[in-house]
Amino acid sequence: MNLEQLKGFVTVAELGHFTRASERLHLAQPSLSRQISTLEQELGAELFHRARGNISLTAAGETLLPRARRMLADADAIRTEMAELAGLQRGRVRLGAAPTLCISLVPEVLRTFRVAHPGIEIQLVEGGTNLLIEQLATGNVDMALITLSERSPVMGPVLVTEPLISEDLVVVSSADVPPVAEREVSLTDLADLPFIALAESYDLRVVTDAAFRAAGLSPQVVVEGGEMDAVLRFAERGIGVAVVPATVLVDRPALRAVRLIDPVLTRTIGIAHRSDVTPTVAARAMRGVVLSTAAELAARAPETLHPAVGVPTI
C-alpha cells in the first residue's frame, strides 16, 4: 500500500467515476485502474462495486475511506512541516471560517499574519458550522473559526473548541438617518421598525426568528434573504434595520449600532481544531494570530465584545 494508491482510491470514491478521477489526478485511466486493483489485492477485499456508469463503495471501501483521508492528511502535514523548518519561509495553513467572521475577524487576522509571514500560503474555506466541522473531520482544514451555541453539532472526542470572544447582537441602521434616538432598543420596539432579514441559512437568522416567536412578535420585514454584506449595505442606505453581530461593525462608519435588550442576545466565537493531529508550524503561528487579534478586537469595543466564558445562551 502506498500514498498514490490511497490518493487514487479517495479521488475515485469522492467523484464516483474513474475517468473524472484520472483527469483530476492527471493520470491515465488504465494506470489508475491498476493502482486500485493492486490496492484491492494487497488488502484482500474489493473496494468498489463496478457497474456500467456507476461506481459505489463496498463495505470494505466505506471502512477504508476515512482512514485513507486521515493518512493523506498526515502525509500532507509532514511535507508541510518539513518545508517550514527553515523558519516559516514556506508552507501553507488552511483556515475555515463562518461567513460573518469573513467580514470581521478574519480580514484582521489575515492582514496581521501576512505581514509576519508573507511566504506562507493561506487557504480559506468559508461555510457554516456543519460544513466546517466536516472539513475538520476529514483533514481539509487545520482550524476553523465558528459560532458556538447550544445548537452546535456534537464535535466528537477528537474535535475540540476553544472560546475566543463573546459579542452582543446589535441593531444597525444608517448613521445618517437612525430610526431610533436611544442607545438601546427592545425587541418589542424592534418589531415596529422596517426590518432587513438575513438569509435563512444563517444561524443568526434562526436566533432572531426564535426570539421574535418567543416574545409573540412578528418583525416588519422589508427585505428578506440577503447575505451579510448586502444586509449591511441595505442598512447603510436607510432601507431598514438589521440584527447583526457587533464585530461586523469594525471600520463601518456609515452604520450606527444600538444595543438590543429585552432580551439581550449574544454569541460566542470559538476556534475549533483536531486534538489528534499535531499542528504544523504555520498552523500554530496562525492560531497565535487568531488569539491575539480576537483580544485586540475585544479591547477596541469593550461595550459589545467580551472575553468568552463557556457557551452563550442563544
Shape: elongated
Write down the secondary-structure element order: HHHEEHEHEHEEEHEHEHEEEHE
The structural domain count equals 3
- Class by alpha and beta content: alpha/beta
Uncertain stretches of 5 or more adjacent residues: 310-314
Structural description of this entry:
It is a single chain. By secondary structure, the chain is of the alpha/beta class. It folds into three domains: 3-72, Winged helix-like DNA-binding domain superfamily/Winged helix DNA-binding domain (Arc Repressor Mutant, subunit A), CATH 1.10.10; 83-160 and 269-300, 3-Layer(aba) Sandwich (D-Maltodextrin-Binding Protein, domain 2), CATH 3.40.190.10; 166-266, D-Maltodextrin-Binding Protein, domain 2 (3-Layer(aba) Sandwich). It is 41% helix and 25% strand. It has ten helices and 13 strands. The strands form three sheets. Strands 3, 4, 5, 6, 7, 10, 11, 12 and 13 form a nine-stranded mixed β-sheet that branches. Strands 1-2 form a two-stranded antiparallel ribbon. The chain has a two-stranded parallel sheet with strand order 8-9. Strand 8, helix 8 and strand 9 (220-226) form a beta-alpha-beta unit. The termini are far apart.
